Amino acid sequence: MIRIFLVDDHEVVRRGIADLINAEADLEVVGEASTARQAVARLAATLPDVAVLDVRLPDGSGIDVCRAIRSKNPTVQCLIFTAFDDDEATYAAVLAGASGYVLKDIRGQRLIESIRRVALGETLVTRAVAAHVVTSLGADRAEPAATLTARERQVLELISRGLTNRQIGEQLDLAEKTVKNYVSGLLGKLGMQRRTQAAVYGAELHNREPAAREGVRAFGPGTLAE
C-alpha cells in the first residue's frame, strides 16, 4: 500500500484528489493539510511514502514544505502538483528535492501513474529542466563529475535509475551503510545537497556520453519525461 499525504489550500481540490486516490487498491490517503505550517507538522507525524504538494499556499510554498520534510525525512518522496506551468518553479522544486512536477490539468490516471512512479523512486523531470539543473549546478565547477571515483560513478548512475541505497548495495554487493557513505561523498564532491539533484545530474551526464547517444539511456523506461 502506497501512503499519500495531500497539501492544497482548496478543500474541494483535496477531496477530489483523495477520492481519486482512495479508489485505487494500492493507494491510500493518510493525511491532508491546507497550509505550509500544518503540512510540515503533519507530514513529520505521518511519514507517508509520497507527499502531493501544491506550490502556492496561504502561508508559504509547497516547495518550501518539500525542502523542509526532505531535509528531515528523505524517505518521503515529494510530487509538486500545481495549476501554474512555471519553469523556474520546476527548477526550484528539483533543487528542493522534489521527484516530479505535474500540472493540475493532467488526467486523473496520469496523476495516479505519477504517484506510483515517484513512490518507486523514479524522477519525473523534463529534459529541459534536467539540462537547466546540470548547467546551474556545474556553472562554477569544471567538470565536477571528473572528481568522482569509479565506484562513486557507479553509485551515481544507479541513483539516476531510481534505486534505493539498499537496492544499490544488492547490485554492487555492498553494505547499505557503505552505499550511504558513497552517496554522501559524491554529493559533497558535486556540491549538491539533495539526492534528486544527483539523480537528475547523473541522468543528464550519462545521456551526454557516446553510448547514450547510440541509444543507451541512463534512467529506466520513462523516468525522465521527454
According to DSSP, the number of beta strands is 7
Level-2 CATH architecture of the largest domain? 3-Layer(aba) Sandwich
Order of adjacent strands in the largest pleated sheet: 2-1-3-6-7
> Taking all residues together, what is the mean pLDDT?
80
Strand portion, in percent?
5-15%
What is the overall shape?
globular
Radius of gyration: 17 Å
Instruction: Output the CATH topology of the largest domain.
Output: Rossmann fold
Quaternary status = single chain
Tell me the major beta sheet: 5 strands, parallel
Count of separate DSSP helical elements: 11
> What is the count of structural domains?
2
List the helices and strands in order. Answer: EHEHEEEHEHEHHHHHHH
Give the uncertain stretches in residue-range form.
Answer: 210-226
Terminal Cα separation, in Å?
29 Å
GO molecular function, one term: DNA binding
Keywords: DNA-binding, Phosphoprotein, Transcription, Transcription regulation
Domain Response regulatory: 3-119
InterPro entries: CheY-like_superfamily (IPR011006), NreC/VraR/RcsB-like_REC (IPR058245), Sig_transdc_resp-reg_C-effctor (IPR016032), Sig_transdc_resp-reg_receiver (IPR001789), Tscrpt_reg_LuxR_C (IPR000792), WalR-like (IPR039420)
Write a brief caption for the model.
The protein is α/β, with parallel strands linked by helices. The protein has helices at residues 11-22, 36-46, 62-72, 87-96, 108-119, 127-137, 150-160, 165-172, 176-190, 195-208, 210-213; strands at residues 2-7, 27-33, 50-53, 56-57, 60-61, 77-82, 100-103. It has two domains: 2-124, Response regulator (Rossmann fold, 3-Layer(aba) Sandwich), CATH 3.40.50; 139-209, Winged helix-like DNA-binding domain superfamily/Winged helix DNA-binding domain (Arc Repressor Mutant, subunit A), CATH 1.10.10.10.
